[in-house]
Amino acid sequence: MNDVLDVAIRLVIVFAAFLVLPLVIGQTEHKVMAHMQGRLGPMYVGGFHGWAQLVADGVKFAQKEDIVPAAADRRIFQLAPAVALLPYLLVLVAIPIGPQEGAVGEVVDAGIFFVLAVMGVGVLGSLMAGWASANKFSLLGGLRTAAQLLAYELPMLLTAASVAMAAGTVSLPGILDAFEWWWVPWQIVGALVFFVAGLAELQRPPFDMPVADSEIIFGAYTEYTGLRFALFLLAEYAGIVVLCGLTTVLFLGGWHSPFGGDDLGWLWTLLKTFLLAFVVIWLRVSYPRLREDQLQKLAWTVLIPLALAQIALTGIVKVVIQ
């Protein structure tokens, strides 16, 4: 019974983090973009530093009418937001935040394969939304999303495999147990490839062509309103938390402190994750979006060769060490 209670408590904590952290990232994005671009609205809503911006957004989405197009496939249309959001909850369960035994929702032996496979399921939400909307532009946006995922899933998998080779395990806690700080310089290329590919998979700027207003309005989500539309946005922010958390665990040492001592390991995990989340927001403000052909070219001619080179380098280093 104690084991069941322990697992239940950890899952409740993971669920609470899943509900809170994406909202924190969303609120942070409002503030960072307001400072970088001189946006006045998000700085004044509610008074001190625009504290009520997130509340105002929530009230706005809750008040909007829930519309389902007459020609839409109603069940699939209504189910799509949940399919887009829930995979990130499952991934959070497997991400360790500290060295303690209970600092992970559930230890998964094949952790890398599990998290990447589950993250790939999220694209089904976009495909379902695009197809069920009975809107050709929404369908086109869903297909673009799928093509983008296919292009960028491979470099993510290859660079994650490089870390698994270095650690000798595909378990996320096992990778952190084997981590050494001298890994960072020779895995940095893999880290950049993984991070960039993750941004493209989340359709974050500058890789947001499937949902760009200047391209096809809002892609697969054009027909969505109210809380269902808000769930797609929440999935985006949950994806940022997951991507930054995985990058932290695989390439930045996770709960390992750069100054020695891991008593506050969970704090180091959160600090590294939020630092990477700031980089995600900063990239949105700083760079224009790519064209669709540039997106595919970047994946197949730049990121995948770099990922293969990283695997080759990892193999050479492992042979030299042994």
Give a short overview.
The protein contains 13 helices and no strands. With 322 residues, the chain is mainly alpha-helical.
Verbal overview:
It is a single chain. By secondary structure, the protein is an all-alpha fold. Helices cover 72% and strands 0% of the residues. It is built from 13 helices and no strands. α11 packs across α12. The relative contact order is 0.14. The mean pLDDT is 87.
Strand content: under 5%
Structural class: mainly alpha
Order of helices and strands: HHHHHHHHHHHHH
Number of helices: 13
- Kindly state the number of beta strands: 0
Roughly how many Å apart are the termini? 45 Å
Output mean pLDDT.
87
Rg calculated over all Cα atoms: 20 Å
Contiguous low-pLDDT stretches (5 residues minimum) are none
Shape: globular
Helix content percent band: over 70%
Layout of SSEs?
Layout: H1 2-37, H2 41-44, H3 53-63, H4 74-94, H5 111-121, H6 123-132, H7 136-167, H8 172-178, H9 183-201, H10 213-216, H11 226-251, H12 265-286, H13 292-321
Index terms:
13 helices, single chain, mainly alpha, 322 residues
